[in-house]
Each structure stands twice: as structure tokens, then as C-alpha cells.
User: Which sequence fits this backbone?
């Protein structure tokens, strides 16, 4: 059973079977984050002045039905993770969920809580009601006397005489209303008192709540003082003129970082210590029989207290070691003092380890420790989270990054390509960032998410073996703003400051720092009209992608080898499994499986057109942009796995054509390739033509590479007509 908020509440309220309770005992004992969350639950439930969520709220964070669906174990999987993250960050939501779970557990465990009162209980209840009624009546009389005090003259002039009988009737009516209200209020107070006593008795074995604040508890970060450039740093150059109207130079200025957005918070429990103790590897669910449904553990009183885990994206049913790979990461052994952090959430991540004395890629599953320096890759279909010194780092699918620490112990994230989202519940959290030419440190403002992206782009027609790709890097402040301090170092060892931005300053919310390799010595700050979707919420996977991710993780757990698992899955009968394995191998620099799948034509092996485009986009452009070595391996894969004699043509269409090449005859070559007998050649030809011409949606449908012969010939004839008119060129090209 995995250690989640739901299972932790069940463990606290003693509603699990004995064996599962003992299993969670060990996990809680080995997790510092779980200890802190237990203490925080005990404190927030008893906090009297905590403002509850609004009853008329809407959305996942404030919708009352969300709590009911969560406790009833019927909250959709794609909303479950976000809801638990909200509970971890928000005291109000955590208190509501914990209190409701505790009440349900008490009712399930102690039938006497709802049993009728005996004679002694009724007498105590009546005595309490009479005492409370008298107190409320006295308070009401005093309030009425104060409210009715008026100057004598005003009262006499404003109050007309009324018959004594009507006044008496009004007084009797008022006293009757007061008596009814007092009785109802007294009954409610008494029932609440009795329920509180029952709950206190049931908490006898619950861990005592700590009175001191938890280290990582979410608190509003302090207002930032005026930030200035270090005295030793050279004066920054004058800000360059922005390339876009909305771009502004980032100047040093005081700012207060806004409070955390309650709907986008860290996944892990707040308050992981500076040197976190790696948690006990999360044992996953009980094995599932082939073809049968997952066995969901349950507790008394039906599904209202079911503690079954939601369907996993990456963790599957098998109790295996936390790092089931042949390649090991020796410094990251569990409990090692040198560990930088650990993998959290449900996403598998690939790291470069050591296998029999040589460097090799291996898998890290949730719960595995991180070495002091890690080279990591997030495969497609996975979104792993890393907890590094209290900072949560989410790597999005297809991302390569390096995690390490600076000399002063500050964690540093270097994104080579792809995207990452960083946040921390600790107000004093800091993190170093390297993305392209952007090098610096976020010294405040990590309560809200911060996005990092590094995109590798190529100019069509350039030779990837001799010309480098263009790099575009961004650091995006989502809400609240961050404090960014430049920290680059030039080749001679002196500090390097980018022109166009201050040495240190505040980056406002919905604003990004942008760096491009075409102007390596400058950066600029631009306001965003809309935030990228991947920053606000992680991309959602469809059912087939989730199934493929689970199949890969299950294979790794069974074989203990990442490479063997990928090779076996690349030959699987399910197409989504083959696509995931091929794209993952391509991230590791092996393009043989991807090219073989792109070129497959046999029955049961050939990809549909949409699947072909997805796999090609995920593997080939990145291979060409990563450098000369990757491009050379891709060309070799076309030689080994492609149609005989077509490798040069395929590689040329994969890299694209410049305007000069199109004018020199490449356009005729592409149109002629529409009649090629090999499917992969026809697919690349129509892809290149559509990328160049950008035709309308209707014109795109005129030709299908995998269509019937007559339809293909008709579509090819239309493209030959476009060629004769001189229209096979990019929009705007002469």
C-alpha cells in the first residue's frame, strides 16, 4: 500500500486491517515528511480560528463535493493528485478532510456514538440545555436593553401609543421566539460537546500533535527587501531595446511575494528537512491477476472509508526493491548521508548509473534516493517528481536534466532540453537554475510554481552534423513573482551578466526571462498574455498512454533491467507499448527501434498516420537537434532499418529543405516521392510538402500516403499541379 494522504488518514484513525496498519507503521516511521504531516494534521484539526472553505465555492479546491468524492473514493484519477496536493498545502482543506474522515471512522468503529441516551445522559443533556438557555436569555436581554436605549424625547415622539393588549401580545410572541431559538442552540451545543468527548476518547492512541510550527508548513513568505547588485559584480550594460512591445527590462525593486495559489501546490508533504531521510520505498499494491481487476482493500462501512490507491501512472502491482535495475547508483543508497533527495509521486525516472564498472542508464522508481549529482531523463508517459532539499522538481515527459548542489548547498537544476516545474512550500527555499544561457538563482518566491523550458530548434535544410541547433530558454514566474539573481561565469572565470536584465531583481507574475542562442550575451523580460498550459497543470495522458506506462514499469520490475525491458516492449504486440519503448530508447540515443517502427509496413506492425506523426515528432527532430553524434546515429539507423537504398532520401526529408534547395529541384523530388512504392517515403514526402506549403485543412486531405492507389494518384496529381504553378514554397518566399 502506498503512503498517500488518504492512507495516512486511515492509519491515524485505525480503520485499516492489522497487516496493512503494520505496513504503514514502517513507512511512516521511515519518512520524515510523513511524521511532519501527521503532526500538522493533529494541530490543524484542533485549531479553533481556522477559516473553513466556502460552502458556495466552485472548482476543485472549494467545491464541497470534492471532499465527499475523495472520502468516498470516487474522485476521478486526473483530479485526485491535484486535490491531495491542495490538502497538503492548505491548512483549511487538510483540516476539513481530516475531521470528516475522523468522524466517519468514529461512527464506523464505535456504534455507541449514535446510540440513544440513557436516563443519566438525558438528565445531563437537559441540565446543560437549561444552563445554556438561561445564559443565552440573559445575554439577549442585555443586548435588547442596550439596543432600545434612546433619548426620552425621541422615543416619545417616535413611538405611538398602543393598546396594552397588543403590547402584551407582542411581548409574548417575542419571548416565544427567543425560547425556541435558545432551545435549538442549546441542543446543538450539547450534541457538539458530546461528539467532541467521543472523538477525544477515540484519539487515545493517535500521535501527539507538536506545539511548535512544522518546518515546512506553508506560511506567507516575508516581504522582500530592496535587492541590489553585489558590490564586486561589474556594472550591467544598459538594457537592450526589447524585441517585442510588451518586453520590459527587469529592474531591481522591492516586492512582496503573493501567497501560494491553492490549486497548484507541491505534491510532497511540506517540510522536508535540509538533508531528507529517504523514505522507506513505497511498496505498491498487491499483485493483480492477469486480466483481472485490481484488488482494492476496503474498510468497514463501505466505500466511504475505502483506502484503495487510485490507478497508478507508473507504479504497478509487485512488491519489489525500490531500485530494481542492474545499473546502480552507489552514492544514493537508502539512508546514505550523501543523498541529495529522493523520487516522489508516481513517475518513473531514468538516471545514469554504473553497471559492472561502465556508465549505463537505469530506472529509479518512487522512493529511490538521489545521488549528490544526477543525470536524469523523464520518459514519455511519465512525469516524475523529485524532492531535493525541500524543493519539489517535476520533470515533464521528454525532459533531460541534471540535478546537483552548489558549494553553499543550494540545489541546482540544469535543464538540457524539455520542461520542468519547480515549487516549494518553504518560505526560505532557494534553487539554482541553468537553462541554455540563463544561469542564476531564485532566492525567494518558490511558493508559486516556476516553469523552465529549453527548446532546440533547427533551420530546415541545415546540416545537423555540422551546424548547431538554435536554443531558446525561458524561466517563467506563474503567480506571486520570484527574485532572480544572475550567477553566470564567463570563460575566463569572471562573473557573466546578461545584458537587458538586472543583476538581481524581481520577476513579476505571468512574466518570463527569455534567452536565445542567436544573441548569447543578452536576455530580456517579457510579459505573457497567457501562461503555457504545461506550467499551470501537468499534461494529461490518455488511457492508452497510461496503459503503456504501466506496462513499461511492470516490465522493469520483473526483469530488473531498463534496457532489456525496453527491447522486449519494442517488440510487443500492442502498438502503444512499442511506441513508448521506441521513443524512450530514442531519448537514450538509440534510434534503431524508432526508425524500424516508422518504416514498418507489415500487417499488425504498421502505424496509423496519426500514430506515425506522433512518433516521428517525438524522436526525429530532437535527434537532429541534439548534435552531430545523435544525427549520425539517426542516419545509421535509416541505413540499418529503412528501405534498401532509401536512407539518404529519408534523412534529407527528415532534416527538411531550405528555400534555395526547393528552387534547385527539391520540390520536384518531393512531389515525385508521392508515388514511391515504400510507405515511409510517401509519408515523409507529404509531411515535408505540408510543412512547407501550409495548405488548408481540406487540401491536406487530398492525399493520404496509406490510401488506396487510385486515391493516391488523384492526390499526387493535385500536388503536381501546385508544382507547375510554382506554389511549392514557403508562405512569403519568392
Assistant:
Amino acid at each position: 500500500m502506498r503512503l498517500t494522504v488518504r492512507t495516512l488518514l486511515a492509519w491515524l484513525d485505525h480503520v485499516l486491517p492489522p497487516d496493512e496498519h503494520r505496513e504503514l507503521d514502517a513507512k511512516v516511521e521511515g519518512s520524515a515528511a510523513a511524521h511532519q504531516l501527521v503532526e500538522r494534521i493533529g494541530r490543524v484539526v484542533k485549531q479553533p480560528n481556522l477559516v473553513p472553505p466556502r460552502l458556495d465555492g466552485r472548482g476543485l479546491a472549494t467545491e464541497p463535493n470534492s471532499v465527499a468524492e475523495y472520502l468516498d473514493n470516487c474522485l476521478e484519477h486526473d483530479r485526485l493528485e491535484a486535490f491531495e496536493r491542495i490538502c497538503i498545502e492548505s491548512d483549511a482543506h487538510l483540516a476539513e478532510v481530516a475531521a470528516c474522515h475522523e468522524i466517519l471512522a468514529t461512527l464506523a468503529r464505535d456504534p455507541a456514538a449514535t446510540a440513544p441516551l440513557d436516563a443519566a445522559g438525558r438528565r445531563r443533556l437537559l441540565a446543560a440545555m437549561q444552563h445554556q438557555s438561561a445564559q443565552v436569555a440573559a445575554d439577549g436581554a442585555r443586548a435588547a436593553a442596550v439596543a432600545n436605549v434612546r433619548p426620552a424625547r425621541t422615543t416619545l415622539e417616535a413611538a405611538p401609543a398602543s393598546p396594552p393588549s397588543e403590547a402584551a401580545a407582542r411581548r409574548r410572541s417575542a419571548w416565544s421566539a427567543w425560547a425556541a431559538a435558545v432551545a435549538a442552540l442549546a441542543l446543538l451545543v450539547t450534541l457538539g460537546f458530546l461528539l467532541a468527548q467521543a472523538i477525544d476518547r477515540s484519539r487515545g492512541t493517535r500521535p501527539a500533535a507538536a506545539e511548535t510550527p512544522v518546518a515546512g508548513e506553508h506560511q506567507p513568505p516575508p516581504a522582500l527587501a530592496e535587492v541590489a547588485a553585489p558590490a564586486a559584480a561589474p556594472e550591467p550594460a544598459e538594457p537592450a531595446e526589447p524585441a517585442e512591445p510588451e518586453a520590459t527590462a527587469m529592474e531591481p525593486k522591492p516586492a512582496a511575494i503573493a501567497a501560494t495559489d491553492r490549486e497548484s501546490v507541491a505534491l510532497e508533504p511540506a517540510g522536508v528537512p535540509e538533508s531528507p531521510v529517504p523514505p522507506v520505498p513505497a511498496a505498491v499494491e498487491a499483485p493483480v491477476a492477469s486480466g483481472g481487476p485490481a484488488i482494492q482493500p476496503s474498510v468497514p462501512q463501505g466505500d466511504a472509508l475505502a483506502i484503495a490507491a487510485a490507478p497508478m501512472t507508473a507504479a504497478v502491482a509487485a512488491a519489489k526493491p525500490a531500485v530494481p535495475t542492474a545499473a546502480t547508483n552507489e552514492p544514493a543508497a537508502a539512508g546514505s548521508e550523501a543523498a541529495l533527495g529522493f523520487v516522489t509521486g508516481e513517475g518513473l525516472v531514468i538516471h545514469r548509473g554504473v553497471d559492472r564498472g561502465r556508465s549505463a542508464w537505469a530506472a529509479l522508481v518512487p522512493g529511490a534516493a538521489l545521488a549528490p549529482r544526477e543525470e536524469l531523463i523523464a520518459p514519455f508517459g511519465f512525469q516524475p517528481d523529485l524532492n531535493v532539499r525541500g524543493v519539489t522538481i517535476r520533470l515533464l515527459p521528454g525532459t533531460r536534466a541534471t540535478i546537483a548542489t552548489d558549494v553553499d548547498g543550494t540545489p541546482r537544476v540544469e535543464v538540457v532540453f524539455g520542461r520542468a516545474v519547480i515549487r516549494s512550500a518553504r518560505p526560505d527555499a532557494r534553487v539554482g537554475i541553468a537553462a541554455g544561457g540563463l544561469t542564476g538563482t531564485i532566492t525567494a518566491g518558490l511558493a508559486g510554481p516556476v516553469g523552465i523550458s529549453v527548446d532546440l530548434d533547427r533551420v530546415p535544410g541545415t546540416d545537423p552534423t555540422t551546424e548547431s541547433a538554435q536554443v531558446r530558454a525561458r524561466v517563467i514566474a506563474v503567480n506571486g513573482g520570484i527574485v532572480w539573481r544572475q550567477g553566470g561565469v564567463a570563460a575566463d572565470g569572471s562573473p557573466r551578466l546578461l545584458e537587458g536584465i538586472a543583476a538581481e531583481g524581481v520577476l513579476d507574475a505571468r512574466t518570463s526571462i527569455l534567452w536565445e542562442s542567436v544573441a548569447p550575451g543578452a536576455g530580456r523580460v517579457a510579459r505573457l498574455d497567457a501562461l503555457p498550459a504545461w506550467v499551470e497543470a501537468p499534461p494529461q495522458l490518455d488511457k492508452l498512454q497510461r496503459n503503456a506506462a504501466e506496462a513499461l514499469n511492470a516490465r522493469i520490475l520483473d526483469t530488473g533491467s531498463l534496457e532489456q525491458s525496453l527491447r522486449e516492449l519494442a517488440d510487443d504486440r500492442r502498438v502503444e507499448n512499442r511506441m513508448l519503448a521506441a521513443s524512450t530508447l530514442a531519448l537514450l540515443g538509440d534510434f534503431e527501434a524508432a526508425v524500424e517502427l516508422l518504416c514498418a509496413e507489415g500487417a499488425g506492425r504498421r502505424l496509423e498516420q496519426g500514430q506515425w506523426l506522433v512518433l516521428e515528432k517525438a524522436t526525429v527532430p530532437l535527434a537532429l537537434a541534439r548534435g552531430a553524434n545523435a544525427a549520425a546515429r539517426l542516419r545509421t539507423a535509416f541505413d540499418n532499418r529503412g528501405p534498401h537504398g532509401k536512407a539518404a532520401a529519408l534523412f534529407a526529408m527528415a532534416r527538411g529543405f531550405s528555400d534555395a534547395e526547393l528552387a534547385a529541384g527539391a520540390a520536384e523530388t518531393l512531389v515525385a516521392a508521392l508515388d514511391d512504392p515504400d510507405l515511409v517515403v510517401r509519408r515523409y514526402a507529404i509531411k515535408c510538402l505540408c510543412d512547407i506549403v501550409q495548405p488548408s485543412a481540406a487540401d491536406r486531405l487530398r492525399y493520404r500516403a496509406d490510401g488506396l492507389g487510385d486515391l493516391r494518384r488523384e492526390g499526387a496529381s493535385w500536388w503536381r499541379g501546385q508544382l507547375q504553378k510554382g506554389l511549392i514554397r514557403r508562405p512569403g518566399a519568392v
Notes: The CA atoms of residues 55 and 64 lie 7 Å apart. Confidence is low (pLDDT under 50) at residues 149-164, 202-337.
